[in-house]
């Protein structure tokens, strides 16, 4: 016999054996009385319980684990969501171009990444911090820290009128 015929024969033999076993299970054995009609019959199947409601995430102060950390929607570096003017500048992108003294205090001229120059005073708000103080040669910023693992929520950033590269000597 070929392999195909052997497998068909084996399958048909298994089907005959299963059918014989099923008929024996339904027929009462000899010498036993049939069960009364009102005896414990298998109960009708109860309907399956309804499926649980769809899962909803309740953050309770935690971040959503399904939002990508690489491309966050509230990323301050995205140029699309930035307001115009000084409020749209990041402290790391700012260059101090000059400091001027008016009647009451110092005023700083800063340049953003787009090469526009703005005038700021102590207390002015930037996108990720504020101008803490202005001295004759430096501007001190208070930068907000957005790192959830950091215990410090803000840090101090000092920017001089002349960065260290220009103070070494000649221009070149």
Task: Characterise this structure.
It is built from two helices and seven strands; from the N terminus they run αβββββββα. With 172 residues, the protein is of the alpha+beta class. The protein has a domain at 85-164: SH3 type barrels (Roll). The strands form two sheets. Strands 4-5-6-7 form a four-stranded antiparallel β-sheet, with no helix packed on it. Strands 1-2-3 form a three-stranded antiparallel β-sheet, with no helix packed on it. A hairpin with a 4-residue loop joins strand 1 and strand 2 (106-111). The longest helix is centred in the N-terminal third of the chain and has 24 residues, at 3-26.
Number of helices: 2
CATH topology description of the domain at 85-164: SH3 type barrels
CATH class of the domain at 85-164: Mainly Beta
Indicate the radius of gyration in whole angstroms: 40 Å
Given helix and strand content, the structural type is alpha+beta
Low-confidence stretches: none
Helix content: 10-25%
The largest pleated sheet is described as: 4 strands, antiparallel
Shape: rod-shaped
Distance between the termini: 95 Å
Tags for this entry?
SH3 type barrels, alpha+beta, 4-stranded antiparallel β-sheet, 3-stranded antiparallel β-sheet, 172 residues
Question: How would you summarize this macromolecular structure in one to three sentences?
Answer:
The chain has 172 residues and is an alpha+beta fold. It has helices spanning 3-26, 164-167, and strands at 95-101, 106-111, 117-120, 125-126, 129-134, 138-144, 154-160. The mean pLDDT is 77.
